Amino acid sequence: MRVVYCIRSTFNSGGMENVLCNKANYLVTHYGYEVYIITTDQYGKKNFFHFSPEIRFIDLAINYDDDRHKNLLRRGIAYIKKNKIHKQKLEKLLCRIKADIVVSMWHEDMSFLWKLKDGSKKIVEIHFSRYFDIIRHENQGAILGGLFKVKTLMERCWARNFNRFVILTEEDRKYWGKMRNLRVIPNACWFEQKGRSKLNQKKVISVGRLSYQKGVDYLLDVWKIVHERCPEWSLYHYGDGELYSMLHDKIKQMDLSDSLFIQGPTKCVQQKYLESSVFVMTSRYEGMPMAMLEAISCGLPVVAFSCQCGPRDIIVDGQEGMLVEVGDVKGLADSLINLLQNHDLMCKMGERAFRRSMNFAPDVIMEQWNDLFCEILSK
């Protein structure tokens, strides 16, 4: 089978690029697919992640990013021109490749990919939740807010025209309404299995960007309460972002410097999970929290806000961990304290979390993708 993925670029270290790398490599090595990746804004840069040498890369050099610093009007005019060129180039290329399936990863091509007459079946997949998109734009002004509403309506119309539209969670389904082509396929956890945490270290771990979305400000307030009751425990957060300086200042002001450590990103994050005993997440909203998937694959029980969207798709409250209403700092702190002071409960939830993670193993998730590809080609 010949599959083409369309994405803006592959030189970034983002989650979408990582997911694409793992999926494409798996399709090549396990199913023997021919995989092409077509980019628009690669700028000659090297891939951040290690793709199989059998995967073929083609950059169309549309370079939408060249216009991002222009004013709204000039950016809009440039976009229309480049989108037209993009459509022409992509259709010509796809007619030459003769793919069975072409997948849009929710970039500029989704507005026209389904129209192209190259003989392939078309899929669009989205790597964030509809709720995330709504929240991200809800505080915009009247003009930008109005443009966003038009944009979201157009995106929904475009998505309807694909053979399949794939989202990450069941929870996100309700935000899209009734769409006959809608399918839910979650992300896989791609960690190589290296065993489980022994849950014998007095360490709590949190992973994510230091941003408003990830709610790290909540995390500090939670830890202030936890530290008073469990002073022997430490919290390690891995990630960086725009709130780095503010959070460091706040940690000092709250006198938490001896128990709360912001370590920055690490390429050894799996080992950090294995050296920890509990995973905590205070996000205001998510798409499909990969950090939570990674944590349960290492046998860590979870204490988290039950934000939209993802946590309820990954764990069951009271089974693999504890879910608390978003913003309930005391409730989250109390749940975490309960777990830290009850090692038997921690071990039971950690065991259930590890078993639950099997639902997100690469073989399980990629079989769903292979089945989807075969299904639409049979029609």
Give a written overview of the molecule.
By secondary structure, the chain is of the alpha/beta class. It folds into two domains: 2-188 and 361-377, Glycogen Phosphorylase B (Rossmann fold, 3-Layer(aba) Sandwich); 203-359, 3-Layer(aba) Sandwich (Rossmann fold), CATH 3.40.50.2000. 42% of the residues lie in helices and 15% in strands. It has 13 helices and 13 strands. Helix 7 links the parallel strand 9 and strand 10.
Q: How much strand content do the residues show? A: 5-15%
Can you identify the CATH class of the largest domain? Alpha Beta
Main-sheet strand order equals 3-2-1-4-5-6-7
CATH-defined topology of the largest domain? Rossmann fold
- As a whole number of angstroms, the C-alpha radius of gyration is 22 Å
Strand elements, count: 13
CATH architecture of the largest domain: 3-Layer(aba) Sandwich
Mean pLDDT: 94
User: CATH-wise, what's the superfamily of the largest domain?
Assistant: Glycogen Phosphorylase B
Shape: globular
Order of helices and strands: EHEEHEEHHEHEEHEHEHEHEHEHHH
Q: Note the total helix count.
A: 13
